[in-house]
Each structure stands twice: as C-alpha cells, then as structure tokens.
Amino acid sequence: MGLPQAKRDLGRNSKALKPKLAPPGSGNISGNREIVCEVNFYGLAAANFRQYVKELAEEGDLLSISKEVDPRLELAAIVRKVYETEDKAPLFENIKGRQKNGLFRVLGAPVGASSLLGKRFIRIAKSLGLPSDSSGRDIIYAINRAKKRQPITPREFETGPVKEHKIFGDEIDLERLPVPLFHEDDGGKYLQTFGMYIVQSPDGSWVNWSITRGMVNGKRSLVGPTMSAQDIGVIRKMWQDRGEDMPFSLCFGVPPAAIMVGGMPIPKGVNESGFVGALLGQPVDVVKSETNDIWVPRNAEIVLEGVVSRTETADEGPFVEYHGHVFSGSGKPCPVFNIDTITYRDDPILPICVAGKATEESETVWALTQAAEVLNICEAAELPIEMVWSPFESHCLWFVLQVNWFKLRALQTNMKDFCENVGHTVFSTKPGFYIPKIYLVGEDIDPTNLNELIWAEATRC
C-alpha cells in the first residue's frame, strides 16, 4: 500500500535498488525464535514525516501558526504550554530570523500527548503505523510483535527529497539560523533535541540510529554528549582507537517510526534500520550522504554531515533535563561535532523536544519503548507479567508491571521471592539501569491509567 505513494515522493531522477531482507538465520530483534505476524500498517505516516504532519492536521491534532514567533524563549514557552495542556502540536511557519533559503519551520511537541477524545496516544500510534485510537496496551504489544519479525534492511536510492538543497563548507553558519533558546538557564541554543544521529563502526557492519542532544557551538559545529555506555559512545571509541574522527549524519524529520526506534534499547551490534523495516513491514528508503559512507532516510527534512572530533571538546549545557530540573552553572566538556555539509528539502521542518515537566517526548518515546523492552525481558524470563508501562507523569522513573494472578499462583512462590525475582530480572538489564522504581499491580489495575495506579498505591501499599 505504501510503495506507490513513496515513489511519488521520489523526484524524477530517483532510482530504487532492490530491497534486501536480512539473511536467513539472522534471527530477530528480541533474540527469540522468529514468529510470523500480520503487519497492520495504517497509512504512510510512520514512514514519512511530511505525511505524519499532514495526517495530524487532518485529524485536528496540529495547529499551523503563521504569526511571527521569537525563537528566543517565546517559541519554547508555547511548546511547553502545549505539553502541559496536551493541546495540538504547534507548527511554527514564521520564525523570527528564518533564512531566505527556507531554513526552517519548527514542529513542537511532535510526539506529545493529545487531548483529542479517545486519542491521547495518537502521535505515538501514528509514529508506529497504528490506528489513531490505539491504547497504551496496543502500542506496547505492537512494538514487541515487531521485535519477533525478521529485520528488513533499507532500500537504497540514488537521490531523494532531502537532496533538493545543499550547503557546503564555509557557506554553513548555524549561528544565523533561528535555533531556539529553550530555557533561560540553558547554556546555549539547541538545534538537536529530536533529530537522529547515524554513525557506523569503522568496518561498516554496525550502523547506529540514536537520539542525543546537540548545542550550537559556532558557525560550523555542535557540541553534545557521547557517553561511553551509549552506542554512539561505543562506536566513537572504535574510531578513536584508530586515531580517527568519527563520521556522522544528523537527520531531522526522519520517518516517525525511525525516531521511535532511535529511543529504544536495541542490543549493541544490531542495526536499528532493520527493526524499523520490521515495524513498518517495508524497507526504509535511504540515500547516501554527500561526504561520508552513511546512508540516511531519503525523505528526511534536514541532514547535517560531518565528523565528531576524537580530541576536541567544548562546554555543553546546562540544559533542562527530562525530569523537569536544571542544574545551573557551567557546562561539562563534551565532544565537538564539526559540520561540513547540510542538505535539506523544500520548506523544511525541524522537529524539537522542549524537555521539562511531563508530558514530552522523553516519556512518550524513550520511557515507553523501555517499558516495551521490559515486557519482552519478562516474557523471556517466563515471568507472569501481562503488561508494562512507564506512566508519563513519573518522568521516566517508574515501571508499572501488571501481574497475571492465575500464572503467578501456578508458580507456587511467595510474594517476597516473586518481587525479588522481578527486581533482579529487570534491574540487571539496560532499561532497569535507568529507571529505578517498579510497581507491581493486579489485573484489575490499568497501568496506563494514573488515577487507578495512585488509588492502588494509596490503598494497597
């Protein structure tokens, strides 16, 4: 269903190469035996950011703002208000300082919660190719079904929309772009809050798609963290060991399914692009970067290419974190991302996440996908867990696990031993490393309903 529309988006001179399936025996993302599942794919929104924006507008969950907005604090304040009220995602068409070359429009709260009746999770659902009225349980189960499918590697094209405009070398000046200052205490302007870094190991066997922030550090550089425990940090170390800078491509406005997967705890060495294909039921269309060997989503809005210095650092931050606090003061030394090339499509859109109090993308993308992985882990450990959720309001600090009492009784264990078993299982994993508190609830409590959870905590704990 999606391929004819995808071809209409390609442009006249595009040539598709044959899509490639992962080789037999390569298994699946979960590491379990492959299970063939029907792919329920609703529209093209999950595979195409422009289509995603269009569908949000059609369903009344996006507001186009033509009045001029100042990128210094005002724009972010509007986005923060939208998060807090769960209002329509704001698309800023007229930002003070917007360049004549089209750079850029801004979409705030791209995966925020919604106040549409019966569609609180519409932006998450559309990002995953699910119906707009999908429940939290639908979303978690859909993610885990995709992990049991065979990965589908990307489909390569010669060109695409993201190649419509190109800027090279000294023509680049990030300081002239209308990059927002989000919070008064921030250490600088953050261009990268909801884009996707693509890096790969020196031999090209491991390609990582992930999200980490980036602050403007001058005309042609960003600065941001590459922590050693994160995949981007592991790959950077490989390049450092060779005495080389690490090439990168930073992509904005990628297929929404890709940005969701970019926040997932995918095992090291596994390529996120294959899981995105499994999630969509079709390959991601990609084109080669201008200055490196990295392939990027061909329908992305904007791509920055360059290298992460193996030695050069600069102060990054402070920056308001996902838990709603900012630790004021000087920044911390982080690697410098030097930029050689910018490519972008006509009238590009920059998606942003303005971190702070819930609900924002830290909860709807990162914490939610961690919860899905915990359910997968519990299933593999044969624990009687029916559902896992991270309540948005917990700011990525709680997991709520729903227990199947019938299966629990069959284990003939006591509650103390069972709780310890769950704790050891979850806290020894990557998601459990970041999220410190677990609540176990019965089948009469909906983990996605905060009122029910608070009632259970207040009356049963």
Question: How would you explain this protein's 3D organization?
Answer:
The chain has 461 residues and is an alpha+beta fold. Helix content is 28%, strand content 21%. It has 13 helices and 19 strands. The protein has helices at residues 2-8, 49-58, 74-85, 122-127, 136-147, 231-241, 256-262, 272-280, 361-380, 405-410, 415-427, 430-434, 450-460; strands at residues 62-65, 89-92, 105-108, 155-157, 165-168, 190-192, 196-200, 207-210, 214-216, 221-223, 246-252, 285-288, 295-297, 302-316, 332-344, 349-352, 385-389, 398-403, 437-441. A hairpin with a 6-residue loop joins strand 7 (196-200) and strand 8. Helix 5 (136-147) crosses helix 9 and helix 7 crosses helix 8 (272-280). The radius of gyration is 22 Å and the shape is globular. The relative contact order is 0.14. Residues 1-27 and 31-40 have low confidence and may be disordered.
Topology of this structure?
Blueprint lengths: L1 H7 L40 H10 L3 E4 L8 H12 L3 E4 L12 E4 L13 H6 L8 H12 L7 E3 L7 E4 L21 E3 L3 E5 L6 E4 L3 E3 L4 E3 L7 H11 L4 E7 L3 H7 L9 H9 L4 E4 L6 E3 L4 E15 L15 E13 L4 E4 L8 H20 L4 E5 L8 E6 L1 H6 L4 H13 L2 H5 L2 E5 L8 H11 L1
Parallel strand pairs: 1-2, 3-16, 4-12, 18-19
Antiparallel strand pairs: 2-3, 5-15, 6-9, 7-8, 7-11, 9-10, 10-15, 11-14, 12-13, 14-15, 17-18
